[in-house]
UniProtKB/TrEMBL annotation:
<dbReference type="GO" id="GO:0016491">
    <property type="term" value="F:oxidoreductase activity"/>
</dbReference>
<feature type="domain" description="Enoyl reductase (ER)">
    <location>
        <begin position="10"/>
        <end position="330"/>
    </location>
</feature>
<protein>
    <submittedName>
        <fullName>NADP-dependent oxidoreductase</fullName>
        <ecNumber>1.-.-.-</ecNumber>
    </submittedName>
</protein>
<dbReference type="InterPro" id="IPR011032">
    <property type="entry name" value="GroES-like_sf"/>
</dbReference>
<dbReference type="Pfam" id="PF08240">
    <property type="entry name" value="ADH_N"/>
</dbReference>
<dbReference type="Pfam" id="PF13602">
    <property type="entry name" value="ADH_zinc_N_2"/>
</dbReference>
<dbReference type="InterPro" id="IPR036291">
    <property type="entry name" value="NAD(P)-bd_dom_sf"/>
</dbReference>
<dbReference type="InterPro" id="IPR013154">
    <property type="entry name" value="ADH-like_N"/>
</dbReference>
<keyword id="KW-0560">Oxidoreductase</keyword>
<dbReference type="InterPro" id="IPR020843">
    <property type="entry name" value="ER"/>
</dbReference>
<dbReference type="InterPro" id="IPR050700">
    <property type="entry name" value="YIM1/Zinc_Alcohol_DH_Fams"/>
</dbReference>
Length: 333
C-alpha cells in the first residue's frame, strides 16, 4: 500500500511517499480502507519531535490520526463491525497511520460513519470532536447557563467546540479575525473578539471555563477572564502531573511535567481556579454520541480545503500556516 512516512524527526521535514506492507491486524482491531483522513496540528508536532518524551514512536511510521473509510477485515475478537461497513475514528496513539491506503483501528475506538456526511466530512470530525467533548464534558463539566471562552474559534477544535458548547446551552465567547466573525457567529458564538484589534483580557470577565489552545502568554492571560472556581483547560500544554499519572509516564517524564506546569498551576491556585491539561484519547462510544448530534443537525463539519493524497505534505504545510478555517482533509480513495 502507499503511505506517507515520517523517517526522522525534524522541523518541517517532509514525509516520504513509499510503498509499505499493509499493517498486521491484531485480534481486537478492524482493518479500514482509508477513503479520507484529516490533517491536525498534532501531526506536525509529532513530526517536529515535540512529543518524543510522551509519545516515543519507532520510526519510520506513517502519520495521521483521523480516518473515514470502509471495513475490509476484522480481527477474531472484533465483532461489532463487518466488511463493507462505513466507519470513522480517531485512531489510538502508537497505532496512528491514516496517511495511508489501509489502517488497523482498535474496534473500541471505531464508530459507524454519520449517515448524513461524506467521507471527507466524516474524516474531519474525530480528533477535534473528541477533544471538544472531553474538554467541555469531561474536564470542565460545562452546564447550561455557564460562560465558556473558546480560543481560536475558526480553527478545527474551535469550530466544533463552539457548536457543542452552544448545544449544551452555554454562552460562548471566542477569538477570531474580523474576516471570520460571520463564520464563528454562524456556528453559535455570542461574543467574537477580534484578536488583531482587541485584547480578550480587557473584554471578557467572570467566565466559568476557558478552553486554551494557544501559546503560554495567552494561557497566562486566560486566568484573568475566569471567575473564582473557574476551570482553565489547555490542549496546548503544559502537561500537568495528573496527565503524567494518567499515561503512567516514567518518573523522569513526570518530573519534567511537574516542572513545566508548576508556574501556571501555582498562579491558578492563587486565583482560586483549576488548571488541567487535556491530551484527548480515542473513544468509539464518545464518537457514537457525537454522531447522534451530527445526524440530528446540532453540529456540522467545517472544512476549509480537501487535498489529493499525493499532496499530503502540502496539506500539512497549510495546516501549519494557521490560515485554515475549520479542517483540512486528504482524499485518499
Amino acid at each position: 500500500m502507499k503511505a506517507f512516512l515520517l523517517e526522522r524527526y525534524g522541523k518541517q521535514r517532509p514525509l516520504r511517499a513509499a510503498e509499505t506492507p499493509v499493517p498486521e491486524l491484531r485480534d481486537d482491531e478492524v482493518l479500514v480502507e482509508v477513503h479520507a483522513a484529516s490533517v491536525n496540528l498534532l501531526d506536525a508536532k509529532i513530526r517536529d519531535g515535540e512529543f518524543k518524551l510522551i509519545l516515543p514512536y519507532r520510526l519510520p511510521t506513517a502519520l495521521g490520526h483521523d480516518v473515514a473509510g470502509v471495513v475490509v477485515k476484522t480481527g477474531p475478537r472484533a465483532r461489532q463491525f463487518k466488511a463493507g461497513d462505513e466507519v470513522y475514528a480517531r485512531v489510538d496513539d502508537f497505532r496512528i497511520g491514516t496517511f495511508a491506503e489501509f489502517v488497523p483501528v482498535k474496534e473500541a475506538s471505531l464508530a459507524p460513519k454519520p449517515r448524513n456526511l461524506t467521507m471527507e466530512e466524516a474524516a474531519s470530525i474525530p480528533l477535534v470532536g473528541l477533544t471538544a467533548w472531553q474538554a467541555l464534558f469531561g474536564k470542565a463539566g460545562l452546564k447550561r447557563g455557564q460562560k465558556v471562552f473558546i480560543q481560536a474559534g475558526s480553527g478545527g477544535v474551535g469550530t466544533f467546540a463552539i457548536q457543542l458548547a452552544k448545544h449544551l446551552g452555554a454562552t460562548v465567547a471566542t477569538t477570531t479575525s474580523a474576516g471570520n466573525t460571520a463564520l464563528v457567529k454562524g456556528l453559535g458564538a455570542d461574543i467574537a473578539v477580534d484578536y488583531k484589534t482587541q485584547d480578550f483580557e480587557q473584554v471578557l470577565r467572570d467566565f466559568d471555563v476557558v478552553l486554551n489552545s494557544q501559546d503560554g502568554k495567552t494561557l497566562e492571560k486566560s486566568l484573568n477572564v475566569l471567575k473564582r472556581g473557574g476551570k482553565l483547560i489547555s490542549i496546548s500544554g503544559p502537561p500537568d502531573p495528573d496527565f503524567g499519572a494518567e499515561i503512567a509516564a516514567p518518573g523522569f517524564v513526570r518530573l519534567v511535567m511537574r516542572l513545566l506546569s508548576w508556574g501556571i498551576r501555582r498562579r491558578s491556585q492563587r486565583r482560586e481556579v483549576r488548571y488541567a491539561f487535556l491530551f484527548m484519547k480515542a473513544s468509539g462510544p464518545q464518537l457514537r454520541e457525537i454522531t447522534k448530534l451530527i445526524e440530528a443537525g446540532a453540529i456540522r463539519p467545517v472544512i476549509d480545503r480537501v487535498f489529493p493524497f499525493d499532496a499530503t505534505n502540502e496539506a500539512l504545510a497549510y495546516v501549519e500556516s494557521g490560515r485554515a478555517k475549520g479542517k483540512v482533509v486528504i482524499k485518499i480513495k
